[in-house]
Task: inverse folding
């Protein structure tokens, strides 16, 4: 059994009388420790897919498994625990608490989970050991995204999910974040899934899932991808 399994997953939104299939009969696997990139045009269903994988949205039909657990059968309470304990989230616009320092933002996440990593350890891992006492407003965009990654990693999650993590950054800063995410995956064996329009991600991924009109159009598997610079 693969680490992540999507089997015939559909998500139908009801727009008044009209059903809209955001995701339709989607099936794919992800192996433990892979760096996975999900690409596709706007409206293809990438965010819907990521939200279902992260327990923020539920499938209309089909099966979602993570590490042998049937996520698609979870009730509300189980989904809350799943989001809290099993999943780390990284967003395009960082979503940091502005009146807390970098370390406090990270500690906030540690406090709600089962098996946290020390805040100073994850801040050092993202290269921000000396910025722990700074507030988000005192940090650059790239540094704020590093804090957000540290916050997600502090939960010691089974899966790190990133939605357009370089979308708000310039090219060079985005490349550095790319490298950080790949290093995180390689050095800690953590499974990382990135939804992105940034084509630089596809060369460094173990698996690229191409999504089109709510379906998986193609999957490329690359056991030995390039290293991010
Ligand atoms: P992207 O992931 O491409 O950056 P979004 O996921 O935010 O963008 O939105 C993709 C499309 O889905 C947009 O056309 C948006 O209008 C539509 N959309 C997102 N959320 C809703 C919603 N709650 N109701 C209707 N349409 C939505
Ligand atoms: P992507 O992230 O690839 O841009 P989305 O997953 O946001 O795509 O959206 C896929 C499709 O589902 C789009 O047609 C979008 O308009 C529709 N959609 C997404 N969220 C909602 C929603 N909450 N209500 C209705 N339609 C939605």
Result:
């Amino acid at each position: 059994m693969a680490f992540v399994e999507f089997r015939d997953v559909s998500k139908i939104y009801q727009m008044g009388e009209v059903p809209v299939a955001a995701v339709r009969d989607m099936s794919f696997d992800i192996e433990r420790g892979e760096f996975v990139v999900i690409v596709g045009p706007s409206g293809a269903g990438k965010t819907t897919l990521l939200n279902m994988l992260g327990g923020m949205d539920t499938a209309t039909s089909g099966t979602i498994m993570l590490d042998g657990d049937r996520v698609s059968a979870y009730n509300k309470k189980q989904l809350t625990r799943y989001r809290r304990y099993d999943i780390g989230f990284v967003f395009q616009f960082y979503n940091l608490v502005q009146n807390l320092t970098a370390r406090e933002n990270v500690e906030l996440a540690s406090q709600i989970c089962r098996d946290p990593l020390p805040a100073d350890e994850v801040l050092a891992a993202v290269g921000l050991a000396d910025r722990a006492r700074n507030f988000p407003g005192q940090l650059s965009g790239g540094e704020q995204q590093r804090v957000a990654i540290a916050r997600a990693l502090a939960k010691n999650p089974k899966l790190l999910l990133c939605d357009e993590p370089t979308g708000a950054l310039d090219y060079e800063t985005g490349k550095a974040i790319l490298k950080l995410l790949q290093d995180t995956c390689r050095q800690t064996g953590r499974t990382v899934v990135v939804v992105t329009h940034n084509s630089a991600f596809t060369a460094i991924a173990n698996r690229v899932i191409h999504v089109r009109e709510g379906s998986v159009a193609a999957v490329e598997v690359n056991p030995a991808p390039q290293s991010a610079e």
Summary: The longest helix spans residues 171-188. Residues 42-43, 46-47 surround adenosine-5'-diphosphate (ligand 1) (CB under 6 Å). The CA atoms of residues 94 and 145 lie 5 Å apart. The longest strand covers residues 18-30.
